[in-house]
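Good morning C.,

I know you're traveling, so I'll keep this short. The sequence:
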Amino acid sequence: MLDIKFVRENPEIVKQNIRNKFQDQKLPLVDEVISLDSRIRELKNKGGELRAERNSVSTSIGQMMREKKIEEANKAKQRVVEINTQLESIEKEEEQLNEELTKRMLIIPNIIDKSVPIGKDDSENVEIQRFGEPKLKDFEIPYHLDILEALDGIDLDSARKVAGNGFYYLTGDIARLHSAVLTYARDFMINKGFTYVIPPFMIRSNVVTGVMSFAEMDQMMYKIEGEDLYLIGTSEHSMIGRFIDTINDKNKLPYTLTSYSPCFRKEKGAHGIEERGIYRIHQFEKQEMIVICEPEESMKWFDKLWSYTVELFRSMDIPVRTLECCSGDLADLKVKSLDVEAWSPRQQKYFEVGSCSNLGDAQARRLKIRIKGEKGNYFAHTLNNTVVAPPRMLIALLENHLNADGSVTIPEVLRPYMGGEEKILVKNKK
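The tokens, ready to paste straight into the viewer:
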């Protein structure tokens, strides 16, 4: 959410930012916000004048009574009653207008960074850099579900009976590999100086609206029936929510945190074959990194965060690339975002395995996450980034480390978490 003062003083900048995000339908909101703000300030001024008058009249009543000016005192008392009635009406209108103002301010997108490329959607994201040499296999690579089934690592049929489409059972060595990836990612981030946290997996509605836009909320979140609780779509939600309505000592910043959680997502819409299986699902697990920092340090941390994801994947010998997200692909709260994509030898292209985002003070402003400095309190900046999110990451690992005989070589960094095993062998030969 933007600062109302900024909108008031820079309406054309706000409008151009909306145009840059190809959300022209939101343009009228700017003028509506300015009009509402103007009326609210008029009411505040009028209220201030009336309170000053009331104080003055109330003070004079005592003097009138002492001087036996009963008629004048009664008129003054009546004026106080009139003022109180006016103030009640003003306060009621002000409350209603503030609600309308907030409703619109929550929809107006955050100002994107000047470095963000202008584009309509993810098809116009810009490749930044590649890390590692993409390799092609000299044998045909099966679809990832076929690989998993050959390794006796998945049971989709039972999951459909138990929970429906979009769920799975991971079994045996694959389940162990899944846990190994998460544990390695946890230790990787701890070694980077991050504090490990396991957060609540449900959050209240005020936290939901504090960390994401209404559009994202509708597309992602599962609501717990009969309760003011939502299942988290990523641990970022509850991790940022942890600091709601806090004033933080600047000398203790930055907060660098890494969190584990299951994630629950609606994942609306139909998708192609490559996005079926375990690519796009309703439940998965993820290791996340969160930073809360001084405003002037957020871009520095942004570059650090995505580089950690690249380093993690390269430590498992998986080629990756980074993509700068264009304006139209940015969620409304984001200032800047970068995707990390892993190489798929099967598809002979890259696919998304993580996303790094700088949200500026948008979440902090909504949740009142402030910093106490020498010159007073101000809003922090928040950032989040995926460390690793199996099972997508598993797809990249399986494809890149698949052998001609169907076995999968376990990356060296994961072997301590796999009991020293070097390979996962085929169990179900067709």
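Safe travels,
E.
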